[in-house]
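User: quick one, fold this
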Amino acid sequence: ETVFVLASGPSLTPDVIESVRGRPTIAVNATVLAAPWVDVWFFTDNGILFGEMEGGERRHRQARDGRSMVEFARNFGGRIISMARKAKAALPDKVLRVEGSFMPRFPAPGGRAIRQGVSSGQTAISLAVSCRAARVVALGFDMRMVDAREHHHDEYAGWLRKPSPYQDFIDAFRG
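Assistant:
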Protein backbone atom coordinates (compact mmCIF):
# COMPACT_ATOMS: atom_id res chain seq x y z
CA GLU A 1 0.00 0.00 0.00
CA THR A 2 0.91 3.64 -0.20
CA VAL A 3 2.02 5.00 3.18
CA PHE A 4 1.78 8.69 4.03
CA VAL A 5 4.45 10.19 6.28
CA LEU A 6 3.46 13.47 7.93
CA ALA A 7 6.36 15.72 8.92
CA SER A 8 6.10 19.14 10.52
CA GLY A 9 6.70 21.59 7.69
CA PRO A 10 4.41 24.58 7.23
CA SER A 11 2.84 23.08 4.09
CA LEU A 12 1.14 20.43 6.24
CA THR A 13 -2.19 22.20 6.60
CA PRO A 14 -5.28 20.82 8.35
CA ASP A 15 -6.79 20.12 4.90
CA VAL A 16 -3.73 18.09 3.85
CA ILE A 17 -3.82 16.16 7.12
CA GLU A 18 -7.53 15.45 6.76
CA SER A 19 -7.06 14.27 3.15
CA VAL A 20 -5.09 11.21 4.32
CA ARG A 21 -7.34 10.19 7.22
CA GLY A 22 -8.16 6.51 6.90
CA ARG A 23 -5.04 5.78 4.83
CA PRO A 24 -1.90 4.11 6.24
CA THR A 25 -0.16 7.05 7.90
CA ILE A 26 2.90 7.72 10.06
CA ALA A 27 3.08 10.98 12.03
CA VAL A 28 6.53 12.26 12.93
CA ASN A 29 7.27 13.92 16.28
CA ALA A 30 4.71 16.52 17.45
CA THR A 31 2.73 16.27 14.20
CA VAL A 32 0.81 13.49 15.95
CA LEU A 33 -1.01 16.20 17.93
CA ALA A 34 -2.59 17.43 14.68
CA ALA A 35 -3.39 13.88 13.51
CA PRO A 36 -4.00 11.77 16.63
CA TRP A 37 -5.80 9.12 14.54
CA VAL A 38 -2.67 7.99 12.65
CA ASP A 39 -1.63 4.33 12.62
CA VAL A 40 1.94 5.01 13.74
CA TRP A 41 3.58 7.77 15.74
CA PHE A 42 7.32 7.79 15.12
CA PHE A 43 10.11 9.75 16.79
CA THR A 44 13.82 9.08 17.12
CA ASP A 45 14.78 10.84 20.33
CA ASN A 46 13.53 11.33 23.86
CA GLY A 47 13.04 15.09 23.39
CA ILE A 48 9.50 14.69 22.07
CA LEU A 49 8.36 13.25 25.42
CA PHE A 50 10.82 14.70 27.89
CA GLY A 51 11.98 18.26 28.28
CA GLU A 52 14.91 19.82 30.01
CA MET A 53 16.58 18.43 33.10
CA GLU A 54 15.17 19.68 36.37
CA GLY A 55 16.73 18.60 39.66
CA GLY A 56 18.62 15.76 37.97
CA GLU A 57 15.43 14.38 36.35
CA ARG A 58 13.95 14.97 32.94
CA ARG A 59 10.52 16.50 33.25
CA HIS A 60 7.69 15.64 30.90
CA ARG A 61 7.40 17.92 27.89
CA GLN A 62 4.14 19.78 27.70
CA ALA A 63 2.27 20.31 24.44
CA ARG A 64 1.12 23.90 23.80
CA ASP A 65 -2.37 22.97 24.97
CA GLY A 66 -0.96 21.92 28.36
CA ARG A 67 -1.10 18.16 27.85
CA SER A 68 1.85 16.10 29.01
CA MET A 69 3.33 14.34 25.99
CA VAL A 70 3.87 11.22 28.14
CA GLU A 71 0.18 11.21 29.07
CA PHE A 72 -0.73 11.76 25.42
CA ALA A 73 1.45 8.73 24.56
CA ARG A 74 -0.26 6.59 27.21
CA ASN A 75 -3.63 7.32 25.61
CA PHE A 76 -2.53 7.17 21.97
CA GLY A 77 -4.60 4.60 20.08
CA GLY A 78 -2.09 3.72 17.38
CA ARG A 79 1.34 2.14 17.53
CA ILE A 80 4.27 4.14 18.89
CA ILE A 81 7.59 3.26 17.28
CA SER A 82 10.74 4.98 18.41
CA MET A 83 14.50 4.69 18.75
CA ALA A 84 14.34 6.42 22.14
CA ARG A 85 15.49 4.25 25.03
CA LYS A 86 13.96 6.48 27.73
CA ALA A 87 10.61 6.48 25.94
CA LYS A 88 10.63 2.68 25.93
CA ALA A 89 11.63 2.62 29.62
CA ALA A 90 8.89 5.11 30.56
CA LEU A 91 6.20 3.38 28.48
CA PRO A 92 7.33 -0.24 28.08
CA ASP A 93 3.93 -1.55 26.97
CA LYS A 94 3.26 1.32 24.53
CA VAL A 95 6.56 1.94 22.73
CA LEU A 96 8.05 -0.48 20.23
CA ARG A 97 11.73 0.41 20.22
CA VAL A 98 13.65 -0.12 17.00
CA GLU A 99 17.27 0.42 16.07
CA GLY A 100 18.47 2.21 12.99
CA SER A 101 21.67 1.83 11.05
CA PHE A 102 23.68 4.52 9.36
CA MET A 103 23.95 3.28 5.78
CA PRO A 104 24.66 4.99 2.45
CA ARG A 105 21.37 3.95 0.81
CA PHE A 106 17.82 3.24 1.82
CA PRO A 107 17.31 -0.51 2.32
CA ALA A 108 15.30 -2.64 -0.08
CA PRO A 109 11.55 -2.66 0.54
CA GLY A 110 10.66 -5.20 3.22
CA GLY A 111 14.22 -5.39 4.52
CA ARG A 112 14.76 -5.59 8.25
CA ALA A 113 17.10 -2.60 8.37
CA ILE A 114 15.95 0.95 9.02
CA ARG A 115 18.20 3.67 7.65
CA GLN A 116 18.72 6.15 10.43
CA GLY A 117 18.79 9.64 9.03
CA VAL A 118 19.62 13.02 10.46
CA SER A 119 15.92 13.72 10.98
CA SER A 120 13.03 11.72 12.37
CA GLY A 121 11.19 12.32 9.09
CA GLN A 122 13.84 10.66 6.98
CA THR A 123 14.02 7.74 9.39
CA ALA A 124 10.21 7.41 9.32
CA ILE A 125 10.35 7.10 5.53
CA SER A 126 12.87 4.27 5.92
CA LEU A 127 10.55 2.64 8.47
CA ALA A 128 7.73 2.74 5.90
CA VAL A 129 10.03 1.16 3.30
CA SER A 130 11.03 -1.58 5.73
CA CYS A 131 7.31 -2.27 6.31
CA ARG A 132 6.94 -2.95 2.56
CA ALA A 133 5.24 0.29 1.53
CA ALA A 134 4.65 0.17 -2.20
CA ARG A 135 5.01 3.94 -2.28
CA VAL A 136 5.78 6.57 0.34
CA VAL A 137 4.20 10.01 0.10
CA ALA A 138 6.12 12.55 2.17
CA LEU A 139 3.93 15.46 3.32
CA GLY A 140 5.19 18.44 5.28
CA PHE A 141 8.83 17.86 4.33
CA ASP A 142 9.42 21.51 3.42
CA MET A 143 12.95 21.66 4.87
CA ARG A 144 12.93 25.43 4.61
CA MET A 145 11.23 28.45 6.11
CA VAL A 146 7.86 29.28 4.55
CA ASP A 147 6.30 32.65 5.40
CA ALA A 148 8.69 32.92 8.38
CA ARG A 149 7.47 29.56 9.75
CA GLU A 150 9.51 26.43 10.30
CA HIS A 151 6.63 24.16 11.33
CA HIS A 152 2.88 23.88 10.84
CA HIS A 153 2.52 23.90 14.64
CA ASP A 154 3.99 25.85 17.55
CA GLU A 155 5.11 22.92 19.70
CA TYR A 156 8.81 23.71 19.24
CA ALA A 157 8.65 27.46 19.83
CA GLY A 158 11.57 28.49 21.99
CA TRP A 159 13.62 25.32 21.43
CA LEU A 160 17.28 25.99 20.81
CA ARG A 161 18.35 24.76 17.39
CA LYS A 162 21.38 25.17 15.25
CA PRO A 163 20.85 28.02 12.79
CA SER A 164 19.63 25.96 9.82
CA PRO A 165 19.52 22.16 9.81
CA TYR A 166 17.80 22.00 6.45
CA GLN A 167 20.81 21.48 4.21
CA ASP A 168 21.84 18.59 6.46
CA PHE A 169 18.33 17.15 6.15
CA ILE A 170 18.33 17.45 2.36
CA ASP A 171 21.84 16.03 1.97
CA ALA A 172 20.86 13.00 4.08
CA PHE A 173 18.34 11.91 1.43
CA ARG A 174 21.14 11.02 -0.97
CA GLY A 175 21.12 7.29 -1.61
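User: anything notable?
Assistant: Residues 120-130 form the longest helix (11 residues).
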